[in-house]
Amino acid sequence: MPALINPSILSADFANLERDLGRIANADYAHVDVMDNHFVPNLTLGVPVVTRLAEVSPVPLDLHLMIEDADRWAPAYAEAGAASVTFHLEAAQAPVRLARELRAGGARVGVALRPATPVEPLLDLLDEIDMILVMTVEPGFGGQSFIEGTLPKIRRARAATDEAGAATWIQVDGGVARGTIARIAQAGANVFVAGSAVYGADDPAAEIDALRALATS
Ligand code: DX5
Ligand code: ZN
Fold first, then answer.
1. Phi then psi for 132, rounded to 5 degrees?
2. Taking CB atoms and a 6 Å cutoff, what residues make up the pocket around ligand 1?
3. pLDDT reported for residue 70
4. Whole-model pTM?
5. What pLDDT is stored for residue 1 in this prediction?
6. What would the pLDDT profile of 186-197 be if each residue is shown by its tens digit?
7. Is 179 helix (H, G, I), strand (E, B) or coil?
8. Which residues, 6+ apart, have CB-to-CB distance to 174 below 8 Å?
């Protein structure tokens, strides 16, 4: 699988999101972190903003919903034009029903796991989802350090998808940077979210190319 680089606009300038989306036009997706101040102790943006971002972004949107009651709120993000909608397993009452609803809404479906949530409950449900998001920091904030203890979970997820012959993408989010991305790729991830690494660089587009090269080396 080719390595996909999805910069997180959590580290962009929230007063200039259209401009900062334009700076990552060579990315595969733009990663949009939706936080509700309940599932995580931070608050970002919601459906009206996502609707406009989808209209102006040069690349498709990869939504990461860090919100309670995903069953109720997630489908609106597919309707808002997101190409991919990821909800947290810990925040969904009926993840299979929700995944089917999101696919019916035209989105790819991701299921996210906090660092202490095991991947095994998803492994019999790979047909229902398009992506597993392994959080490699506790969700809520950018700029945190990669948690090394999450690497075995990435390896187990990749081994299981390979064994099943599934096309499931494995995304990592948190602490992805030049110093960590090669090891994460070797563990089996193929989609890399990077916020502070990309938007903290002098040239975000060049940083995307550098990260992609390190992930495929
Ligand atoms: C954190 C968010 C991440 C965040 C990653 O909860 O889900 O997408 O932007 O930031 P970095 O890449 O700086 O660790
Ligand atoms: Zn995220």
1. -110, 125
2. 8, 10-11, 31, 33, 64, 137, 139-144, 173-176, 193-197
3. 98
4. 0.98
5. 83
6. 999 999 999 999
7. coil
8. 135, 136, 137, 138, 139, 144, 146, 147, 193
